[in-house]
């Protein structure tokens, strides 16, 4: 099973806040380590339309995030901004081995994983990614297709072009299909929407979290701030507010800590430098007790909300 560590990544660039040393890392079942706060490029910063040329705002926001210690970047070919991220990585000047870069393949019909990863690496200006994910299982029409694609993912890990490989938005049934083929390199991560109003096991997910634990698959939570924003107001508000007051932080920081304190990586985002700084400096300074984690979970189970992979994506609420 993957486990949280406080392993630090000492930095040589001089741009890193001291607090980065305290951002926890999670040990994945393949032995690699992932920073438990990720900066997402898929909501506030995805590229709208088929715009030609580089979007300077995306580049600048990403440089700002990296310079504030967000060394784990969550990209995808579908976000249309890997070239901007590549420029930002080069401009930020942080050594490659200090960064943790994830991207995702859409598994478009007629495409191969090898070709998709080659395109992503070229845009990112990298020769490997730290984590390569299959963005969703919804392109597949049979278990055999999921198995064939997974074998292609394994080949990329063997080739050293993806240090770790995983999936996103997979339900238990999709993972069972992958495991039925006895993979040589099982998925080490499932990136899923996760917050108090979508805890999966009571959501028809068929014991997804328990299954992930059993298989040693780490959870990455995307949209961890849903209960303080898209789905607010709701039953967790008074608990978030009480704990925010207790720890001298914002409700958003309590929401992020709720993931970390369950050993779950939080993939969040913001284009506000002030907020990014606040998260990076304050998140390592407090911890929820197991009772507080459970209190939020219990209140969260009173409401259901899913923002992504419904028939309609969450409203565009870029901030
Ligand atoms: N794999 C997938 O299918 C998938 C789906 C959705 C998102 N993602 C990834 O996860 C990342 C994060 O997703 P998200 O944006 O939904 O995460 P999130 O829930 O953390 O929301 C982040 C947003 O909340 C805003 N915000 C932060 N603090 C706030 C506050 N106190 N009050 C109000 N608003 C506040 C931010 O400015 C930002 O726009 C994406 O960029 C993407 O990389 C992946
Ligand atoms: O991963 C976030 C959801 C998503 C899937 N495909 C996209 C394309 C653009 C922006 C977001 C998404």
From TrEMBL:
Keywords: Oxidoreductase. The record marks 104 as: Lowers pKa of active site Tyr. The active site is at 79 (proton donor). Coiled coil: none annotated. Residues 1-19 have a biased composition (Polar residues). Residues 40-299 form the NADP-dependent oxidoreductase domain. InterPro entries: AKR, AKR3C2/3, Aldo/ket_reductase_CS, NAD(P)_OxRdtase_dom_sf, NADP_OxRdtase_dom. This is NADP-dependent oxidoreductase domain-containing protein.
């Amino acid at each position: 099973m993957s486990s949280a560590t406080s392993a630090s990544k000492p930095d040589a660039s001089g741009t890193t806040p001291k607090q980065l040393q305290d951002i926890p890392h999670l040990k994945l079942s393949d032995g690699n380590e992932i920073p438990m706060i990720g900066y997402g490029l898929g909501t506030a910063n995805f590229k709208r339309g088929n715009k030609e040329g580089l979007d300077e705002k995306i580049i600048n926001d990403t440089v700002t995030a990296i310079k504030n210690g967000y060394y784990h970047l969550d990209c995808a070919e579908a976000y249309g901004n890997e070239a901007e991220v590549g420029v930002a990585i080069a401009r930020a000047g942080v050594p490659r081995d200090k960064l943790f870069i994830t991207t995702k393949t859409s598994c478009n019909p007629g495409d191969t994983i090898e070709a998709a990863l080659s395109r992503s690496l070229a845009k990112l200006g990298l020769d490997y990614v730290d984590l390569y994910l299959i963005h969703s299982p919804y392109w597949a029409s049979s278990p055999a297709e999921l198995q064939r694609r997974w074998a292609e993912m394994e080949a990329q890990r063997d080739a050293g072009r993806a240090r770790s490989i995983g999936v996103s938005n997979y339900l238990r049934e999709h993972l069972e299909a992958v495991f039925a083929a006895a993979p040589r390199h099982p998925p080490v991560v499932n990136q899923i929407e996760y917050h108090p109003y979508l805890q999966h096991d009571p959501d028809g997910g068929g014991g997804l979290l328990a299954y992930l634990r059993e298989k040693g698959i780490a959870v990455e939570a995307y949209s961890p701030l849903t209960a303080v924003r898209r789905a607010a107001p709701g039953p967790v508000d008074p608990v978030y507010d009480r704990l925010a007051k207790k720890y001298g932080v914002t409700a958003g920081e309590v929401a992020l800590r709720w993931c970390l304190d369950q050993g779950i990586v939080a993939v969040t985002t913001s284009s506000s430098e002030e907020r990014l700084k606040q998260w990076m400096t304050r998140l390592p300074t407090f911890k929820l007790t197991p009772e507080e984690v459970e209190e939020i979970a219990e209140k969260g189970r009173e409401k259901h909300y899913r923002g992504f992979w419904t028939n309609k994506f969450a409203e565009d609420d870029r901030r």
